[in-house]
Amino acid sequence: MRMMSLKKLTSMKKTFLMQVMRMNQNMMWMKQMNSIHLFTGHTGELYAVATSPTEPLLVATGGGDDKGFMWKIGHGDWAKELPGHRDSVTSLAFSSDGKLLASGVFDGLIQVWDITSGSLKCTLEGPGGGIEWVRWHPRGYVVLAGSEDSTAWVWNGDKNVFLNMFSGHSSTVTCGDFTPDGAFLLP
């Protein structure tokens, strides 16, 4: 058994310790009170995990098997696949109101999902390289993403509108974010 990532997530004042492992291509989740949940949707390594800011038991995962899923912790038989990814799902982020989920893909696309229906709302196009990370504005539907092609991109993720592109990095843009008040972005 090889640990892929270990992440402490705090959501709605409940703390979960998630331990993502690769075990016969399955995923094992550990949460508070030593409860173990086994999800078998992914068939490859896990690259991304995100929790909803409004539903503490709703988790999204993405991996090298070109798949994304939404899971409800404690509902081992409930999962919603996010279909249509053509490459590895490298990053995930829920909007601050929990209504939308962005999945960054290594093919350079970002897919925006409606959480209520589970349907694809839009696909954001731009970078010529794989998406390294995605972030939502803290008070809206603006999406910021970094790419392996040395650029960072900004879109309105609700309306599928390109807003800006930042270049000048000499290599992959491996991290970035909005300031907590949303006044600035740091690509």
What does this structure look like?
- The protein is an all-beta fold.
- It has a single domain (46-186), classed as Methylamine Dehydrogenase, Chain H, CATH 2.130.10.
- Helix content is 0%, strand content 54%.
- The protein has no helices and 18 strands.
- The protein has a four-stranded antiparallel β-sheet with strand order 1-2-3-4, with no helix packed on it. A four-stranded antiparallel β-sheet has the order 5-6-7-8, with no helix packed on it.
- The chain is globular and about 45 Å long.
- The termini are far apart.
- Residues 1-14 and 21-33 have low confidence and may be disordered.
Q: Please give the domain count.
A: 1
The helix/strand order is EEEEEEEEEEEEEEEEEE
Name of the top-level CATH class: Mainly Beta
Task: Write down the overall mean pLDDT.
Answer: 82
Task: Please list the strands of the largest sheet in the order they lie side by side.
Answer: 1-2-3-4
CATH architecture: 7 Propeller
CATH superfamily: YVTN repeat-like/Quinoprotein amine dehydrogenase
CATH-derived topology: Methylamine Dehydrogenase, Chain H
The N- to C-terminal Cα distance equals: 36 Å
Low-confidence stretches: 1-14, 21-33
Beta-strand percentage range: over 45%
Helix-and-strand structural type: mainly beta
Q: Radius of gyration from the CA trace?
A: 16 Å
